[in-house]
Amino acid sequence: MSYASTVPSPEALLPSLTPNEIVPLLIGATVDEVERELVLQTLARCDGNRTRAARVLGLSVRTLRNKIREYSADGIDVPMSEHAAA
């Protein structure tokens, strides 16, 4: 079994909400706020695994790492894998 087959698809990580249910939740939030929440929720669902989260989000690991550093500098708790916490 390849590693790629163990990475969940973005659809598998999303709750089963329709766009008509999601969009009203986003109104009033900035793009930065929406992006941050998407990154943090994806990290949480990937158990803090940055490589998996980056793949799901369509980002490079470097870009995700930079976003995590920015969030941490702003005092935001970022989900970490058990390996990174040790």
Q: What percent strand? A: under 5%
Within CATH, the superfamily of the domain at 29-74 carries the name Homeodomain-like
Described by strand count, sense and barrel closure, the largest sheet is: none
Protein structure class: mainly alpha
| Radius of gyration, taken over Cα atoms and rounded to an integer in Å | 14 Å
Overall pLDDT level: 83
The oligomeric state is: single chain
Order of helices and strands: HHHHHH
Ends distance: 28 Å
Number of strands: 0
Note the total helix count: 6
Low-confidence segments, given as residue ranges, are 1-5
CATH domain topology of the domain at 29-74: Arc Repressor Mutant, subunit A
Helix content: 55-70%
In CATH's first tier, which class of the domain at 29-74 applies? Answer: Mainly Alpha
CATH architecture of the domain at 29-74: Orthogonal Bundle
GO molecular function, one term: sequence-specific DNA binding
Domain DNA binding HTH: 31-71
InterPro entries: Homeodomain-like_sf, HTH_Fis
Protein name: Fis family transcriptional regulator
